[in-house]
Every structure is written in structure tokens, then in C-alpha cells.
Specification:
This is DNA-binding response regulator. There is one protein chain. Helices cover 59% and strands 11% of the residues. By secondary structure, it is an alpha/beta fold. The protein folds into four domains: 126 residues, Response regulator (Rossmann fold, 3-Layer(aba) Sandwich), CATH 3.40.50; 149 residues, 2-Layer Sandwich (Alpha-Beta Plaits); 95 residues; 103 residues, Arc Repressor Mutant, subunit A, CATH 1.10.10.
Length: 516
């Protein structure tokens, strides 16, 4: 532990330093000063773990010194030396987060016990994930940990971030999230300091990136109780954010204290999809508005008529007409206040029905290629712009789908291989087994099959199994583990993982969205 001693009485300062030297190698005095101003410079330069300071000193008192250091972002542990008549000073010191008081004259035992307490506290902070650095850096790192990690002591870190930012109980506290989506990698690093500088005039703030959510988060406390954050964010923050990412979505939640940080973040994340249902480039949503939208939502009916028109347009090879029907559906969804999850579910069902028509016309290979590419962006849409972008990709790619002309027939060997695969796909048939039955080498069969079928044996087998699983999901009353076994997957969890990789949906989601 690195220690600085600030004391104007030479004998007292010298005595404390000698006592510390006798307490063992864990404690090292790295600097000393005889007044508050010199103490500030010394602490700025040396960045100690602990400061031992007299409460009354020339040029700057211990209180004034701590106040200036706090304003400059220092959050070292502090032990104050105090006399019997100095308790008004002591009260002010408590407000500045002083760790402990030692009353003069100091005994060796008092000092030993106090330093042990400080050491335990520092060790505890390290174990709990408390980052090193000044208060601003610590607050940002702690905010990031509180939002992004589970293996932490949440109450302890919440307490530290409150101390580090100097949060006051009587003032409101807000969480602001800025969802960047696909632009996160391009703009997040540049946007962080801009957000921080824009929020500084409003009050205390810490800003961090939440990589797994593709968003930024800011913990904000105004410098007075009558400052309204929603207006400030809309008028000051939103325009700056939109200059860098025109599709960014900002949400705000008010909290009672820092312990509500993660639940508030999760709540905003859960409600963020309502940006799909809300129109306007100047919208900043708060929890109250989002909850009102939930109450005002209308029932969304599945567009069976649009589905039939869409399938007819695909069947008649008129992709422009199909694109218009997709646009018609999207316009209908976005005109009313519908639950965004219902919009997403119905959209997935609509596109899945279209994919089945594409499969019948152009072959299952094309369907497998497009399933992930079309369905995943819809499922992961968080804003209106992301959903519109997902549909734009589908409409564009529909125009590029062409039926194969004069497909080359398979050779007799590959035809026999496919027939055996279709007969025994449930039993875990392998390329080596089929090659042995056909009296050829596995290497020869593998190369011939890949060349003629356009994908290797394993991929072809997987596609066939998932195709059969789809039929069973929609037409049988079998349980999920029974379907998995029927199509050659003894492990239902592995079956679910493969199914989602191939289709973009879990088996349960596929069944729910396509059974009608």
C-alpha cells in the first residue's frame, strides 16, 4: 500500500512515518508534505492508495485539500488526524468520503488497526472487480461492469460508483441508453467522449459502451432537482448522436438509486423494440411512455390476403410485385400502434411462407441459403429502420432469384447415394458406409457428390434432416425430442442448435409461426 502523509507538525509527521515503517513491508510511505497545497501537488503526482492528513493545516486545510482533490477526480482512501475540538471539520470530512479518523495523540496500535482496515478494504475492492484509476475512469469502468457482467458484487460496486461520482441522495438519478445497432463498431468510440462532454453541463455523469448490446449507456444526475432530463436529451444529445448515426435510438429511465441500474437497463432493452412502432426522428422514449404504448397497442391480425398475393407473385416470377406486397405489409404494420413483437412474429411467418414457395419453384438449396439471411435480421430488429432495412434486402434479393435452366442430372452413383441417404437418414448413415455398399472409395464418392450436388455429403444430409423435421413440426403431434430422434438427432439440444443454424428459428419458434 502506497501512503502519503500530510501534516504541518514536523514531529507528528515524522513519528507517523516511523510507526508505519515498523508495521511491515505492506506499507510504504512514498511522500510527505507540511501543508494542504503541497499535499495536493504531491497526491496529483504520486497517486497514492492512502492519504493520512491533518484536518487543520496552513495554506489549505485538510477539508479544502480533499475538496479540491475530489473535484479533480481523485478517490484514494483518506485517514484524517483530528483533535478533540474539531468535530465540525470532521462532519464535513465525512461528507467527502473520509475512510477513518484518528484522534491525536496517535498510538501505534491505533495506526496499525486503521491501516489493516484500509488494506482489507482495498483487497476487497480488487476482489470485487473495482478498477484502478481516477474517479472518472473508475466510474466508467464500474458502469460497464455493472451492465455487462454477472460475476460481480453488485451492491458493493453500486456503492463505489455512487461514491466515485459523488452522487447525492436527494437528487434524481437517470440511466440513458443509446442503441447504435450495426453502426456500433464504426461510431461508438468516437461518440463516447462527445456524449460525455454534452452531459457534463447537465450534472454528474459516467458514460460507457455495452458491446454485447451494441449500445452506449450513461448514468446521469442533474446538478439541481428542477432540471428536466428528457428535454435536455432531446434538444442537446439527440441531434449530436444523429449526426453520427441517423438511426440511433435513445431511451431514458429514472431510478431511485444506483442499485436499480441493471434492472433499469434490462427494462429499457426489453422495451426498445417499441421504436419499431413509434414514428419520428426526434423521439426519445422513457419507461412511462413505453408502458403507455403497451396499454394503447392494437391487435395485429395476420395478413393471410397479403401472404396469398405474395406467393402468387413469387410463383408468377414477378419479383417487383412481390416487393410491393412486402412494402404493403410493412406500411400496414407501421401505421398503427401494434406490439412490436407481434409485428416481428407475423413478419417471420409471412417471409417463411414465401420461402416455402421459393423452395418449390427454385429448389430447397436456395431456400436454405436465404433462410438465415432473411429471417435473422427481422428477428433481431430493434428499431423501425432496422426492420425496414431487413425487408429492403429481401425485396432486392427476390429480384435476383432465377430458376436453373436445364439442370444437369446426377450420375448413377450420386443418385444411388441420395436414395440411400433418404432411406436411412434417421439411422446416422455415413458417407463411408454408402461408399462401401457402392464398392468405391469414400474419397472418390465425396469428390463426386460435392461436384454434382453443389455441397458436401454432410451438408446435404443436414438439409434433408431439417426438411423432414419441418414437416413433422407442422404435420405431426410429436414432442420435440421425438422429432429430433425421428430425423437422426439423439440429442434434442443439438437438434435445436442445428435447426436454428439452418433456419434462423428454433424448432418451437418455427412451429409457432407456421402452424397458423
Amino acid at each position: 500500500m502506497k501512503i502519503v502523509v500530510i501534516e504541518d507538525e514536523d514531529n507528528t509527521r515524522s513519528g507517523i512515518i516511523k510507526l508505519i515503517g515498523k508495521l511491515g513491508p505492506d506499507y510504504e510511505v512514498i511522500g510527505e508534505a507540511d501543508n494542504g497545497l503541497s499535499g495536493i501537488s504531491l497526491i496529483e503526482e504520486l497517486r497514492p492508495d492512502l492519504v493520512i492528513a491533518d484536518i487543520k493545516m496552513p495554506q489549505a486545510t485538510g477539508i479544502e485539500m480533499l475538496q479540491q482533490l475530489k473535484e479533480r477526480g481523485h478517490r484514494h482512501k483518506t485517514v484524517i488526524l483530528t483533535g478533540f475540538s474539531e468535530y465540525e471539520y470532521a462532519r464535513k470530512a465525512l461528507q467527502l468520503g473520509v475512510f477513518e479518523f484518528l484522534e491525536k495523540p496517535i498510538t501505534a496500535e491505533d495506526l496499525r488497526v486503521t491501516l489493516e482496515k484500509v488494506k482489507e478494504e482495498l483487497n476487497f475492492q480488487t476482489a470485487a472487480g473495482m478498477p484502478a484509476g481516477n474517479a472518472a475512469a473508475q466510474a466508467e469502468q464500474l458502469l460497464q461492469q455493472l451492465l455487462g457482467r454477472e460475476d460481480i458484487d453488485r451492491p458493493l460496486l453500486s456503492s463505489y460508483i455512487g461514491q466515485g461520482m459523488g452522487l447525492e441522495e436527494q437528487l434524481p438519478l437517470f440511466l440513458v441508453t443509446i442503441y447504435l445497432g450495426k453502426q456500433f463498431d464504426n461510431v461508438a468510440r468516437h461518440m463516447l467522449p462527445i456524449i460525455s462532454s454534452l452531459l457534463k453541463p447537465y450534472g454528474r455523469q459516467a458514460v460507457c459502451s455495452v458491446v454485447q448490446d451494441q449500445s452506449l449507456a450513461a448514468l446521469v444526475q442533474p446538478d439541481s432537482a428542477n432540471r428536466e432530463l428528457q428535454h435536455y436529451v432531446k434538444e442537446v444529445l439527440l441531434p449530436a448522436v444523429r449526426n453520427l448515426d441517423s438511426y440511433a435510438a435513445i431511451s431514458v429511465a429514472e431510478m431511485n438509486d444506483v442499485s436499480r441500474l441493471k434492472p433499469s437497463f434490462d427494462r429499457l432493452k426489453e422495451l426498445r423494440k417499441w421504436f419499431i412502432a413509434v414514428e419520428g426522428s426526434d423521439v426519445v422514449l422513457n419507461v412511462g411512455q413505453l408502458e403507455r404504448l403497451q396499454l394503447e397497442r392494437r391487435v395485429l391480425s395476420y395478413p393471410s390476403t397479403i401472404e396469398n398475393k405474395l406467393k402468387m407473385a413469387v410463383s408468377s416470377h414477378t419479383p417487383d410485385e412481390a416487393g410491393r406486397h412486402l412494402e404493403q405489409w410493412l406500411d400496414f404494420c407501421l401505421r398503427g400502434v401494434y406490439d412490436p413483437q407481434h409485428i416481428i412474429d407475423a413478419s417471420v411467418r409471412l417471409v417463411s411462407a414465401m420461402l416455402q414457395t421459393v423452395s418449390g419453384l427454385y429448389g430447397e438449396r436456395i431456400t436454405f441459403d436465404y433462410q438465415q439471411e432473411w429471417l435473422h435480421p427481422i428477428l433481431s430488429s430493434q428499431t423501425r429502420q432496422e426492420l425496414q432495412a431487413a425487408f429492403a434486402v429481401i425485396a432486392r434479393q427476390l429480384s435476383s432469384i432465377r430458376p436453373e435452366s436445364n439442370p444437369v442430372p446426377y450420375s448413377m452413383i450420386v443418385q444411388k447415394t441420395i436414395r440411400i441417404l433418404q432411406e436411412r437418414y434417421q439411422d446416422g448413415v455415413t458417407l463411408e458406409e454408402i461408399a462401401a455398399e457402392l464398392h468405391i472409395t469414400p474419397e472418390y464418392l465425396s469428390g463426386l457428390f460435392t461436384r454434382e450436388a453443389g455441397r458436401n455429403f454432410t451438408a446435404f444430409l443436414k438439409e434433408h434432416r431439417i426438411r423432414k423435421a419441418k414437416e413433422l413440426l407442422l404435420e405431426s403431434g410429436l414432442k420435440m425430442f421425438e422429432i429430433a430422434q425421428q430425423v437422426g438427432y439423439p440429442d434434442p439440444k443439438y437438434f435445436s442448435r442445428v435447426f436454428k443454424e439452418m433456419t434462423g428459428l428454433s424448432p418451437a419458434e418455427y412451429q409457432k409461426l407456421n402452424r397458423g
